[in-house]
Amino acid sequence: MTSQLFVIYHSGYGHTRRQAEAVYQGAASVEGIEAELITAEEAIARLDDLDHADAMIFGSPTYMGSMSAGMKQFVEAAAKKWFSLAWKDKVAGAFTNSSSFSGDKLNTLVGLMINAMQHGMIYVGTAMLPAASNPDAMNSVEGPGPDVTNRVGSFVGAMATSFQVDPPGAPPQGDLATAEAYGKRVAEITLQFVRGRG
């Protein structure tokens, strides 16, 4: 028996799509998970399909310190599911990309997390220390480089920083590896939740 997981994203310039693809790859790598990658627009058209999922991971670029209008459209369309708590006890996660290290990305993740919590979902963080793949980088004023996982130090969800670099040059490898690890973690937690730790 497989568990269904949707990665639902909006991407304005392609950066968040690359991040979403990495999240999807991580989730799809977990045996027992059937992962599907869809845009926010596709998700609006398939709201009833999402009722049957065990998990959803939401991804949005951070524009002006908040989630994009495309993702907000999905959030507002999905509000009709709130009335019946159709998504209660499903596992959830979130990821975001912006053009600077901060960009107030946390606000986007908090917005996506609160949306999940209002639906009664079970939210999963990264469980990844800052500069996880190179902790020594934290001992320099330059900090972690672009190939280091969780270089931004996010615990709420996967963050990526693309600056003004067009895809596929950005997001960098470390941020994509962070996204992949996060997708895998949410998938593994989903299986634990559905099947039990035993």
UniProtKB/TrEMBL annotation:
InterPro entries assigned: Flavodoxin/NO_synth, Flavodoxin_CS, Flavoprotein-like_sf, FMN_Rdtase-like_dom
Q: Which Pfam families match?
A: FMN_red
Residues forming the Flavodoxin-like domain are 5-187
Which top-rank group of organisms is this from? Bacteria
- What is the name of the protein in this document? Flavodoxin family protein
Annotated source species: Almyronema epifaneia S1
